[in-house]
Design a protein that fits this description.
4-stranded parallel β-sheet, 6-stranded mixed β-sheet, 37% helix, alpha/beta, 10 helices, 272 residues
Length: 272
């Protein structure tokens, strides 16, 4: 059986990613009167320039029905089934829109709610590919992947409270308190939602807390940054000092993620 693997642009695909039979539907970046397809219409450099000079915050939105329909109609001509691994259903309407479009297809479409974003989406796809090679059916693959969100340990450092405020993620009172006390919230995905893991007074302590939250793992650990590779390298170095035999890699998050935390935000992600 020939399976097409679909994800959205919130996913982090490593530079050496296996792109065979893998397709990405772009989320959208909306700013003032302009709409950009994430990863297509706006370069990373142009995005951070836009983010830095604008008083109004860009907004993120799900892929268009048109883009999903175009992709799926092309895939049903070449594949026997589609497995879509998507951004957490709790924070985006992408899952439900894809599900709606899938009803009109002549081939089965199986949906995985990753309950997270970034690298885990690609990792879930890789796990699904391994199951497919073993002859597991798309339905059973999907059932298995939908249970694996608990495998990923994650912490997210928010660099810019202003961006959270402009994006409507925190109230003005919370922003003022955070600014006055120089609080750096550390967030985490849990059960598909974004929650506060810690509130730390200084950036240095926040990074140390994030590192202390992790344990060694036999799989790769990722430091994923929003337009700040220098900080990512510093965090990797500190992680490596604590976990000397751990494989640690660096990657850059999509602008669709940076919208909410600003340039300089980063995440540490690993398997439990």
């Amino acid at each position: 059986m020939k399976i097409a693997w679909v994800t959205d642009s919130s996913a982090y695909l490593p530079k050496d990613a296996n792109h065979s039979d893998l397709y990405v539907v772009p989320l959208q970046i909306n700013h003032e009167n302009n709409t950009y397809k994430d990863g297509i219409d706006l370069s990373t450099e142009d995005f951070y320039d836009l983010l830095g000079r604008s008083e109004s915050a860009p907004k993120s939105s799900q892929p268009t029905v048109y883009d999903i329909e175009n992709l799926f109609q092309a895939l049903e001509k070449e594949y026997d089934a589609i497995i879509a691994v998507l951004i957490s259903r709790q924070i985006s309407g992408t899952f439900d829109t894809v599900a709606s479009v899938a009803k009109s297809l002549s081939i089965p479409v199986h949906l995985v709610d990753s309950k997270i974003v970034s690298w885990p989406l690609y990792d879930l796809i890789e796990q699904g590919r391994m199951l497919a090679k073993e002859g597991v059916t798309p339905l059973l693959i999907t059932q298995s992947l939908n249970e694996k969100y608990v495998m990923y340990h994650n912490r997210i450092f928010v660099a810019d409270l202003n961006q959270l405020l402009k994006g409507g993620r925190i109230g003005k009172v919370g922003f003022l308190v955070g600014s006055l006390l120089k609080i750096h919230p550390i967030l985490k995905f849990k059960e598909g939602t974004i929650q506060v893991a810690h509130k730390i007074r200084t950036r240095k302590r926040a990074i140390l807390q994030m590192i202390n939250d992790f344990e060694p793992t036999s799989s790769d650990m990722w430091v994923l940054h929003c337009g700040d590779e220098k900080t990512a390298k510093e965090v990797k170095q500190q992680l490596q000092l604590k976990f000397q035999t751990q494989a640690i890699k660096i990657g850059e998050l999509s602008p669709i993620i940076a919208i909410h935390g600003g340039q300089g935000s980063f995440a540490i992600v690993s398997k439990i």
